[in-house]
Amino acid sequence: MVNGNLKGIKEHLRKRIEALDGLKTDASKFLPLELAQEMGEITSALGKELCIYIARNGEILYVDLGEDDRASLKGISLRRSSSRLSGIRCIHTHPGGNGHLSSVDIESLKKLRFDAMCAIGVDDSGTTNASVAILSDNDQGYNYYTAPSVNKIPQDFLMNEIFDADKTIKHETIVEQETEKERVMLIGTDASSVEELERLTDTAGGETVYKAIQKGAKGIIGKGKISELALVVQSKNIELAVYDDELTGSGNYTGPAPTHQPEKRQPVRRHALPLWASWGTPRNPSPEPCPPNGQRNDRRTPYPPRRWRTGKRVPES
C-alpha cells in the first residue's frame, strides 16, 4: 500500500509509484542505481518528496508520497530488541536539487533507529547529489557520507558500515536521555506575550526550547505556519505547544502531523498553564489536549469545575 495523497496524479505516474511497493531489489546493494533514477524521475515530474523503506533482504516495505518539503516517516522495525538497528534503511528524495540531509532527517534516523538515512537531490533534469548518515558511537552519534551523484554511491562500503554499526553502537549513546522537564514550544503574536508564556512555562515545570512569533496575524497560526512548525517540532523533539490565544475547533489540528509520534505532542491554551503548574507534573500534566470551543464540561480538559473557578463550593447537580 502506498501512503500519501495520490489524487490528481496522472495514471502512469501513479502506477510507477505503486510498482515500488513490495519490489525486490539487489540485497547486496545499498541503493540500486535503477531504483535511485526511478525515484528521481517520479520526484522531478511531481515536485514532491518520495520516501521508501528497504529491508536488508532488498524488499521495499514502505512507500510514501509526501509534499514538496516533507514526507511521512512510519516507525517500523524488523528487530525485537530496541537496542539494535531496525533492519531498514530510509531512502527519500529532496526536490530542489539539494541532496544533503536536514536536521529533521538526522533526528528521525536516531529516533527510529534506521540502518541508514539517505537523501537524493532532484532537480528538473533528474537526480543530483546524495548523502547518507549511519548511526555510530562517536560524539555526534552518526557518520555522514556524501556522493556527487547517485552512481557514485559506494554500495558495498555502506552496507559494510551498516553491519559494523549494528554490532558496535549502544542504545544509550545515540538516544538523548529524557529529562524531567517537558520540552515546550511557545507561539504568539508579540514578544511580550511570549515572554510571559515563558515565565508561566517555567513555573509549570516546562523547558522552553523554541519561540515562534507571527506578527500581525488575524489568528495565531494557519495551515502554512503549522507546516513550518511541524518540522521544528520534529527536529527539536518538542512535546508540548502553548498558544497565546483561544483555539477554534478548526484551529486545533490542521496541517500535517507534527511528528511520527503525534500522541505525545499536545496543544495547550495559555490560561491552562497556571492550572498545569498547580495540578500536574511535567511528565504527566493533568490538562489534556484542548477540545474544540463549546466542550468545556469535560473535567479532563484544563477547565476546572465551576466551584473552583468561583472560589465557592457549588452543590453537585
Tell me what you see in this structure.
The chain is α/β, with parallel strands linked by helices and 317 residues long. The protein folds into two domains: 2-174, Cytidine Deaminase, domain 2 (3-Layer(aba) Sandwich), CATH 3.40.140; 182-310, GTPase HflX, N-terminal domain (Rossmann fold, 3-Layer(aba) Sandwich). Helices cover 28% and strands 22% of the residues. It has nine helices and eleven strands. The strands form two sheets. Strands 1-3-2-4-5-6-7 form a seven-stranded mixed β-sheet, sandwiched between helices. A four-stranded parallel β-sheet has the order 9-8-10-11, with helices on both faces. Helix 3 crosses helix 7 (223-235).
- Average pLDDT reading: 75
Number of domains: 2
- SSE order, as H and E? EHHEEEHEEEHHEHEHEEHH
Alpha carbon gap, first and last residue = 52 Å
**Beta strand count:** 11
Which stretches are low in confidence, meaning pLDDT under 50 for 5 or more residues running?
Answer: 172-178, 251-265, 274-314
In what order do the strands lie side by side in the largest sheet? 1-3-2-4-5-6-7
CATH architecture of the largest domain: 3-Layer(aba) Sandwich
CATH fold label of the largest domain? Cytidine Deaminase, domain 2
Q: Please give the largest β-sheet.
A: 7 strands, mixed
* Rg measurement, Å: 23 Å
Q: What overall geometry do the principal axes of the alpha carbons give? A: globular
Q: Indicate the multimeric state.
A: single chain
Give the strand content. Answer: 15-25%
Amount of helix:
25-40%
